[in-house]
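Thread: "does anyone have the structure for this chain?"

Original post by V.I.:
We have the sequence but no experimental structure in hand. Need at least a predicted one for the grant figures.
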Amino acid sequence: MKNTGYFKDKKVVVVGFARSGVSCANLLFDLGAEVSITDLKDAQALSANIALLKSKSIKLELGAHSESFIQGNDLMIVSPGVENKAKPVEIAERLQIPVISEIEFASMLCPAEIIAVTGSGGKSTVTTLIGMAIEASGKKAYSCGNIGRPFSQFVDQMQEGDYVCLEVSSFQLERISKFKPKIALILNFSKNHLDRHKDMQEYLEAKKRIFLNQDKSDYLVLNSADPVVSGLAKEARSKAVYFSASKEFNPNQAAVLAAGKILGIDQNTITDVFKKFKGLEHRMESVAEAGGVRFINDSKATVAESTVWALNSIAGGVVLICGGRHKGVDYSVIKKAGEKKIRKVIAIGEAAQAIEQALSPYFSVERAASMDEAVDKACFYAKPGDSVVLSPMCSSFDMFENYEQRGRVFKELALKKTESLKR
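Reply from O.Q.:
Generated one for you, tokens below.
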């Protein structure tokens, strides 16, 4: 790692005690920092994460964010879910304590070449495929970031000559300072995260920070079919490279091919990776089938455009389970893809009313109070040849800890249902 001495004896407070918070705290401890963690959840809710800490000397403030706990620190590192207006961030700014994101922290230590991927949809798939292509070319690659594997968990394993493929969200980019990827990809831009950003312009400004520190020796890979994204080249100092879908390759694959060309990876090597790729868990994941009805877990689809992709990928009728925490998404964009395909929409969570209002002019919509009830209702309406698809178009935080937990619950219920149907 680089700059390992920078954090020695520094007092650092980590905000957020989920996966990235645990990884940050443990790495900081290894670097000789005086570490503390603050989170609004209590000790009982976070008992599993407490057990993952390397030392009891790491101070904890659980169930509150107090000024006295934050005061006196040299640095604050925030987890992706921590908003700019969150109480601990406001305290730190008032006390003039620098605030950075977890990816900024890890990038300060990273000896590997950084490839960063952002966009409103497709980030996890593209990040994974680029990593697989690099590995197939004979080099070492780490796929992490917002994909569910914290950057700070793996940075101490990286060497010069390695690559790290990072999925980065607008939240993570808000608090960067010197983060500088060799290759930055912006896949697309659509209405999203308006529960956190005040408007679309603020959301776009956060995304643009991915190329903030790039220079003419770096590359910015842009979607030529997206007018907002393609127009960003004039604002960047890096070399613009464009990609677009074709009959042979979808937009995600085209983006991977563009990055691979920059890296000097043979196209045949990359297309072999595409053939072997089985998909990601929670992204168009085939779960089970019974009575001619398929169950598909697309819990990672937190924007409507991802659900459009899902609908276009499925043959036959669809009973769609969607909903969660509303992020300002325009649900009606699924209208065209769902025509003559969606048999029923089952809406759940805080966004159920908004989904019903947006989609009831086009489809039959019914609400469910829980995932269990939603799966039961979906099974009632599904006919042989149909697919019951969880593709939420929303974040999970109203009912579940994250999209992975939401997907696992759906899968468990689907498997139980198919087993009962087989008896």
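V.I.: this helps a lot. The first helix runs from residue 19 to 30.
O.Q.: and The chain has three domains: 9-97, 104-276, 285-422.
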